[in-house]
Amino acid sequence: MAGCSGRDAVIVGAVRTPVGKGKPGGALHSVLPADLLAHSLSELVARTGVDPAEVDDVIAGAVTQVGDQAVNIARNALLGAGFPESVPGTTVDRQCGSSQQAISFAAQGVIAGAYDVVIAGGVESMSRVPMGSSVLPGSDPFGTRFAERYSEGLVPQGISAELIAARWGLSRTELDEFSAASHEKAARATKDGLFDNELAPIAGLQYDEIIRPGTTVDTLAGLKPAFYNEAYAARFPQIKWEITPGNSSPLSDGSAAVLITTSDVARRHGWKPLARIHTTTVVGSDPLYMLTGVIPATEKVLRKAGLTLADIDLFEVNEAFAPVVLSWARDTGADLAKTNVNGGAIAIGHPLGASGARIMTTLVNALEQRGARYGLQTMCEGGGMANATIIERL
């Protein structure tokens, strides 16, 4: 990914908070979302040594932009972090991929010459701003023409996950095995200190709060379906009702931030580039199945990059639900042994607007630790979309 002038986009710093339980009583519930993002911004400045006055823009993802997350949280957070008033900020919403899209926008701006130094990140406090709370009673965010096109009606994401499990023939045991493995990998990574370089403790929380060491298929098997609904059962008789809290990502709180610049600017400042943003893309997909966009997004980004699956050393596929990753692996042929090697969102958590930057931070770190070259990140998104990004360790 390079501009006509030869400009590139490199990551020179990436940091995230530990992920907290996204409900009252969670470790980060008392932290206002703007302060949560400000913490990652401040830590990024401290760790990279960047002068905040040189930051051309802060682009932050946030999904539920209402209440404590309203009024352009990117700008509020950067001012709270002590950045000069001359630094602007903007907040983007591409649903679960919001901060991955923020990274793409930042990279595109750097390559185009619109920016020299930019921060991309994201935040979500699902304990303070519940998912869906931006849809006011009596409102219609879809409109009549949308309703005419999809006259049978779309479904919540949990039902989409059930439909995917049914279409791909994924058993409850397969889903629970994958989910238990996510906890095992995340617990081991935490114990071995593999997250230490990326974590910025806050409010007394040192490590991700949601990971459950010792999670087994047997314990997950005892959980009941989370999304059973008589109307949907009648409409979709193929559903076997296999999606539970154990094979879904939990409600979460967290933030993350990534510093992006060019190789030339990094050299002038003495910053060590961690990875080059090689290729980015975004796709739309069937809004009924909603979560399958990771499949065409992976195919498209590889094609644009001139790479193959065999070239990719590590994959990060957001674990919104277990069938998302398992159907992706089955259709693309990607190796699950290279996927989410330090666990994924089922164990670590999925703070919606922060997840893209959280996963990027983890991917950069994992590539460095393993001496690997290429990483591919992809995320499904509400409404039927997906981002995909390939990075190259430098």
TrEMBL record:
The keyword Transferase applies. Residues 10-263 form the Thiolase N-terminal domain. Coiled coil: none annotated. Its EC number is 2.3.1.16. Keywords: Acyltransferase, Transferase. One of its GO terms (molecular function) is acetyl-CoA C-acyltransferase activity. The keyword rRNA-binding does not apply. It is an enzyme of class 2 (transferase). Residues 272-393 form the Thiolase C-terminal domain. CDD domains: thiolase. Pfam families: Thiolase_C (PF02803), Thiolase_N (PF00108). PANTHER family: ACETYL-COA C-ACYLTRANSFERASE, BLR7806 PROTEIN. NCBIfam families: AcCoA-C-Actrans. Belongs to the thiolase-like superfamily. Thiolase family. This is Acetyl-CoA C-acyltransferase. It comes from Mycolicibacterium crocinum.
